[in-house]
Structure formats: C-alpha cells, structure tokens
Amino acid sequence: MTCGSRSLRLVREHGGVTFRWVKGHSEDPGNDLVDALAVEAAQSQQGRSGGSLDSVAPGP
C-alpha cells in the first residue's frame, strides 16, 4: 500500500483530517552551508576494497 493510498484510506475512515504544509530545509542558509560541506567531504573520500571486518570488530 502506498503512502498516498494509506492516507486516503485514513481520511475516509476517520474524517476531519487537515493536511498542512511544513517548511523543509530548502533555502535555509545554515542548511545549505552544511549540505555543501557534506557534499564536498563525500566527494573527497577515497574508496577502499579488500580487508576483513574481523580486524575492526570488537573481541569476545
């Protein structure tokens, strides 16, 4: 069941539902800054391959 069909079913069953817009983070100066920093950091990462997780897993 999709989110939309579930919402519609709930409205039909319970009635009196009000949907309201909630501001997201888009065009928020602080969020835009940390988003740009996160993208920059992610792009500068180097992939690694091989090895075993046993070397980083906690011991018994």
What report would you give on this structure?
The chain is mostly helical and about 60 residues long. The protein has a domain at about 5-45. It has helices at about 5-15, 30-45. The mean pLDDT is about 75.
Topology:
Blueprint lengths: L2 H12 L14 H15 L17
Condensed summary:
The protein is an all-alpha fold and 60 residues long.
Q: Per DSSP, what share of the residues sits in E-state strands of 2 or more residues?
A: under 5%
Shape: flat
| Terminal-residue CA separation | 43 Å
Order of helices and strands: HH
Structural class: mainly alpha
Features:
60 residues; mainly alpha; 45% helix; flat
